[in-house]
Design goal:
Distance between the termini: 8 Å
Helix content: 40-55%
Largest sheet: 8 strands, parallel, barrel
CATH superfamily: Luciferase-like domain
CATH class: Alpha Beta
Strand order of the largest sheet: 1-2-3-4-5-6-7-9
Number of strands: 9
Structural class: alpha/beta
Shape: globular
Length: about 325
């Protein structure tokens, strides 16, 4: 049975603060470790009032300190926003503090809007340098070379494992070429999933880090005691996507009884396409959907996002999912 991991976007529910969201993150991480999740990733976003993980490496350090064995990392760091040396120092520091537990997933998008990207003082063409920046970062985290004059301290020879993230064929091709694990963002951009997985697997070249392809696939899971309750919880994520289409990004809204009254037919179709890799329902419903999805994709690992408004309900969703995974493992054995 494949591993399951957590993708925590540190959602800020309406009526709460980023501090509340970060405390919820630490609570969820402690529970996730106890429930047997493989890794716990956080993502870099800027100027978004509904996401509290902008200072991603700082939050990763807090999560790693609050847990003991689970891998913790970035899903991901948007490398065009940063100097590779700074990221090498940050993640070299994390690896030095929490040896053998840190992952570094790298994305090519800025993780924000154009105005905010300018506020980050980055060159608009920085994304074009992504492959070169990945190689530079990899070298900075690798062994010290003869006559190397610039090194990351900490960072050099920590060999933090790198991942390439993506929602298109570009990331799949780069991960394959560099022999790195690949994480596909199908939890919000599933259109190219199957094609990207095929490109990655067919083009993969073994590397010092990885001898065979490893594809982790992002999904949304909204699990509850009944299908109806799970569908109700799912309306928070659906409303957030509607807001994105209308140019209104904000805090995570509470669920609603009648989502049909909130969207047009076109918006409903768009939301359905964007959230197509979502599994919503009771344990039996979610399990059936996940088993089909794993068989269809051949995923080596799933990473699960759950944008649920009520923190206790969010915990319960991940707990139900952990039970599903445990049952699937027993069945496979």
């Amino acid at each position: 049975m494949i591993p399951f991991s957590v993708l925590d976007l540190a959602p800020v529910p309406q009526g709460s603060t980023p501090g509340d969201a970060l405390r919820n993150t630490l609570d969820l991480a402690r529970h996730a470790e106890g429930w047997g999740y493989n890794r716990y990733w956080l993502a870099e976003h800027h100027n978004m009032t509904g996401i509290a993980s902008a200072a991603t490496s700082v939050v990763i350090g807090q999560v790693a300190a609050a847990t003991n064995t689970m891998r913790v990392g970035a899903g991901g760091i948007m490398l065009p926003n940063h100097s590779p040396l700074v990221i090498a120092e940050q993640f070299g520091t994390l690896e030095s503090l929490f040896p053998g537990r840190i992952d570094l997933g790298l994305g090519r998008a800025p993780g924000t809007d154009q105005m905010t990207w300018r506020a980050l003082r980055r060159d608009p063409m920085a994304s074009d340098q992504f492959p070169q920046d990945v190689l530079e970062l990899q070298a900075l985290l690798g062994p010290l070379q003869p006559d190397q004059r610039i090194q990351a301290v900490p960072g050099t020879d920590t060999n933090v494992p790198l991942w390439i993230l993506g929602s298109s064929l570009f990331g799949a091709q780069l991960a394959a070429m560099l022999g790195l694990p690949y994480a596909f963002a199908s939890h919000f951009a599933p259109a190219a999933l199957m094609q990207a997985l095929a490109v990655y697997r067919e083009g993969f070249k073994p590397s010092a880090q990885l001898d065979k392809p490893h594809a982790m696939v992002g999904v949304n899971v909204f699990a509850a005691e009944t299908d109806d309750e799970a569908k109700y919880l799912f309306t928070s994520a659906q409303q957030r996507v509607i807001g994105m289409f209308r140019g209104r990004r904000g805090q995570l809204p509470p669920p609603v009884e009648d989502i049909e009254s909130l969207w047009s037919p076109d918006e409903k179709a768009q939301v359905g396409r964007m959230l197509a890799c979502s599994f919503v329902g009771s344990a039996a419903t979610v399990r059936a959907g996940l088993e089909r999805f794993i068989a269809d994709t051949g995923a080596d690992e799933l990473i699960v996002a759950s944008a649920i408004y009520d923190h206790k309900k969010r915990l319960r969703s991940y707990e139900i999912l952990a039970g599903i995974v445990s049952d699937m493992r027993r069945a496979a054995a």
